[in-house]
Structures are given as structure tokens and as C-alpha cells.
Amino acid sequence: MSRHRTTAVETERLRKYRPDIQGLRAVAILMVVSMHCGLLDIHGGVDVSFVLSGFLIGSQLFAEIDKTGKVSLTKFWARRFRRLAPPMAVTIVATAILAWIFASPLKFRDFVADGLSASLSFMNWRLVENGTDYFANDGSQTPYQHFWSLSIEEQFYVAAPILLVALVWLSRKILRNRALVGVFLLAVIGASFYTGYTQTPIDQPLAYFSTHTRIWEITSGVLLALLAPYASRLNRTVAGLLTWLGLGTILVTSLLITSETPLPGYAVAGPVIGTLLIIGGGCANPGFGAERVLHNPVFNFIGNVSYGWYLWHWPILVMWPYIVDREFTFQERLRVAVLSFLLAIAMHYLVERRFKNNVTLVARPWKGVLTGGFTTAGTAGAMVLAAIVPLNLATSSDSTTEATGYTGTASVESAAHQRELSDAVQSTLLKAAGNHATKGCIDNTEVTEFKMREGCVIGNPDADKTVVLMGDSHAWQWNDLFHELGAELDAKVVTMTKGGCSPQVYHIMSPNLGRAYTECDSWRESAFAELKKLKPDVLIVTNRARQEATREGAEAAFKVFEETGADLVYMTDTPQPGQNIPDCLATNIDDISPCNREEWQALEYTDFRAMEREVAEQHGARIIDTTPAFCAAGVCPSVIGDHLVYYDDSHITSGYSRTLKPFLKPHLQEILDKA
Prior knowledge:
two-stranded antiparallel ribbon, elongated, single chain, 29 helices, 12 strands, 60% helix, alpha/beta, Rossmann fold, six-stranded mixed beta sheet, 6% strand
């Protein structure tokens, strides 16, 4: 890896412009848009782009080091800013405007916070912090979610030139060649890939979005740029075969990856290796390589507008249901792909080319850096200002009386006919996400064993009688109410709950993990063992209704419950609103009926609900049907009295649950008296 002296043959082969790379840009964006828009189940487009970025930036940096012995950071960053910052700014601000016009006020606040993260290039870490499921299709996506990959690339652009110059200098001083650079790059690739592979089953959002688990893909491209002079000496026939093998590898492995594949894991290595083979083989400029299909006017044009298409397709995709307010069909997704492509073309000619080819900015790189800096700062500032804009919601209530919720079945029936949202409820919407249970304990996804701890005991910890509340998050949502009931009825309440984990013995596929929820299986076993030791007086079981439920699983669970000797209680699951209720209410202040759900829809999986109830009755459990506290007249309201019923798309608020004391207290009193 000594300093390269280009021969005439290598000059012919090592080209400054690579039509095959331009074609790969087109392939990558077509894969991304097709997958996101649901046109074709193909994955790996971002991985192809990562390798392309690494190779192109590495080639530029090594070429400049070869020519001058150093890298002009000002020129390097100016080139990046001129190309990337203005289109990003336009997209971020325009998306915020669309969100202001069409999305709910609550969504708007969340979206501009994401827009701030995107503008400062740490969107990937925000998604890690939020535990975002990349493949979720439940309305939780942000229109800035796709900025995760751009954030990683921007972080790379900041560090790469400084690091590479230092490594090249150090390698020359010690070894008089670039071997140390290659060793370092290999070490980064190995460590990063290993970290991503091992973290995928443990913490999928961290593995998917974080810089250190993804940087190996970009670094692979940099390593290939370092080795490009040697790749250019390949036999052209062999090089051509490698490019075809690479193209086949990308297509086959990308089609084999599905939303159920644990990503990134090892699966993304397929598109990465395929891209390396195409670029590496293309260094020898083979006459009959994959460039034959990658180099064409269509792919060349798509490659030119690929950056804009990437920027626009995802915000339009997320915002489209808000804009058109109708079912999101295949035709609608196709419209999104076409519209975002047209916007990308406009972006290319009106924004990208104007800044990229601006004579003043090219001649004076420091102006390019300042332009990028001011653009970034201005975009971030716009997001900060947007976050403090007053929303069209009442922020306080004139009422001085305590908010009422459930006061009997009549209050539920009255709520079913309510249309206008009161100021009292409006004033709670901004804080709705925090209106959940705070007492007791709930174990998160990665916990594999239930451990009794102080926080799991609520009610009256010194009471003689023990009540256990067991289940998933649909059991935990009742904790605050059971804390009050335990204190009033002189009972110690032990909470045994784990998110997404039913106490019924059946296997659950976790969408967050992208695999079987094995942590639930092991946690359940340890919780059963603790139950047998605890020997509670009363055991209350409740869980979310799931289509994975089986009679065998319910039988196995209630057999264990029966062996504890406790008086068994089975609480039926609460209704499912099917949409984020605070969002819906904020959007429909004058007529909240779209936020209410028909009872037959809200009580989903009726067959499984009935089966679990039947098994519980067969094992002597007392049944508490919670439906009358939530539904009446065939409707399950989203607001009852002056209380939000749900703080998201599934769970009841702590505030409303505590108003159900008159509903549950007589049941628990009678059960405790007999226990």
C-alpha cells in the first residue's frame, strides 16, 4: 500500500466518473422508495447507499492526500454543505408546514421536535432513545424518520477527513506505506459489524439506528477506495463476472430480507457485499460488466435526483393519510412515489444545482461552509420557534370543580352521545402521554426474570391479605387504582407485569424485536415460580386480547394459578380504540365522534376473549367484565365525563381508571371478605 504511482493502463481503468456508481444510486433509491411505499418488498437500499458514500468520499480524500499530502477541510466540508444542507433545509421546513396544516396539534409538536433533531444530524440517536420500531405501521412514524441514515452520513463526514489524514500521516511515519490505514479500517468494520450483529436480538432500535453499529457499511466503501488501485489491475473478464455476481447478490439478498428478518444483524451484509463487488469489479473498467445495465439514460436521470427523492418520499408518505383523509391503498402509495419523484426533480433543478454549481461558493469554500452553517442554524431555529407556537387548544379550564369520570353506566351512555370537546379535556391533551399508571412495577422488553422488589408492592404493604395483579401492560394500566383500593381495603397488592407479555402460556412474536418474544417465556416461568412461593389470597389476571392465544396456553396458565390456592379473578380486557386518542381529539375538537369506536370493533378478537373467559370460569375464577365501564349504546367513547379514557391507542389513563373505584371496589371487597 505504498504511495500509488498511476500507470497508463491504470489511468484508463480508474475513471473519475463512474457510470456504474450513478446507476447504483438509482438502484438504491428505487429499492428504498419501493419498499417504503409498499410497491415491492425489497430491502437494502440504504445499505447500498452507505457503501457508495464511503467509496466516493474515501476516493476523494485519498486522491487529495496523494496530490497535496493533506486535505483541505474547508473545501471538503464546503462541498458537502453545498450539496446536502439546502435540500435538507427545504424538506425539513416544508414538512413542518404540511404538519401544521394537516396533522393534529399534538403530532405537530412531536414532528417539529424530530425536525430539530434532523436539522442537527442526530435523528438516528433520537430514534434510538425513543425505541423506534423501523417497520412499525401503526401511525407512530415521524415524517423525519428517514433522516436517521443522513445523520449517520453527516457524522461520518465530520470525522472522516480528520481521522484519515491523521492515519495516513501516522502510517507513513511508522511503516512508510498505508498498511496501518487498512488495518484500522478492517478493525472498525469488524468491531462495528460484530456490535450490530450481537445487539440486534438485545436492543433492535440501538442496533438499527446507531452510528457505531452501522459505520462498518460506510467504512467498507472507504476500504475499497483505499484498495481501488489494486482492484483496477484485475483481469477484466474476472472483474466483469464480479460485477454481475454483485448485482445478483444485491437483488437476491434484498428480496430475501423481510420485515420479520432481524435487522441489521447479518442480513444487511448481502447488499453491502454485492455493492462492493460491483464497485470493486468496476474499478477495472470491464467491457461486459454490470455497467451494461446500470449505465442508461433512465438510471442516470434517477441517480441525479436520487437525493431529493430520498428526502421527499418519506415525509409525503407519512403525511399523505392526513392530507387526503381516505384509505391508504396501493394506488395511494403509488401516487406518493410519483409525486415525491416530481418534487425531487424540482428540488434538483431549483435548489441542488443552484448551490452545487454556484461560482462564488465554489471559488470561496469558506462561504460554502458559512452557507451550510447558516442554513443548518436557520432550519434548527425555525423548528425551535415552531415548537413554541400556541396550538389551537384550550390550555386551562375555567371549572374549579374536580373533574368527573365514571359515575355509573349512565355516564358512559351519555359520553357515547357527546360531540364537543370541553375546555377541561382540551387542557389535558398536551400532557396526555404522561397520564399513565405510576404505582407498582412493569418489566420492559429485555427483562427475562421477574424479581420481587419494593416498587412492586403497593396498597397497604403491611396488610395481612395479599392480592396479586398479574398480566401485561393492560394489567399495569390498572395499578394506580389498585394502589388506592389496596390502601382502602387493607390489602397488600403485588404487581407482576411485563410489557407485551401475556400470562397465558403461548408464544408471542414481538414486532419490536422482529422475532419470538423469548424474554416473555422465561419471565413468565419465573413469575409463576414466585407466585407459588408467595401464596397470595387473591390472584387477579388480566391481559391484552391477542390472536396468538390458544386454549392450551390458557389451560396451562390457569392450572398454575389454581395450584397457588388463591381465589382467582379474571378481568376482561379493555376495549381497543384503534387510534391515538389524544391526537384524534386534538384534531376533532368540535365533533369528537370520529374518536369513538363501535363496540364490535373495539372489542377485537372476540373469539379469543371468549375462550380465555371460558377457561377462567372452568378453573373457578370469578369474572369481572370491564366492558360496562367503557362502552354503552354500542359505542366505546374516548372521553367519559371530563376524563380522557385512553392516553394512546391502547391503554387507559390513570385519571379515568381511578374514577372506576365505585365499579371495582364492591367486587374486590366481596372477594377479600371471602378469601
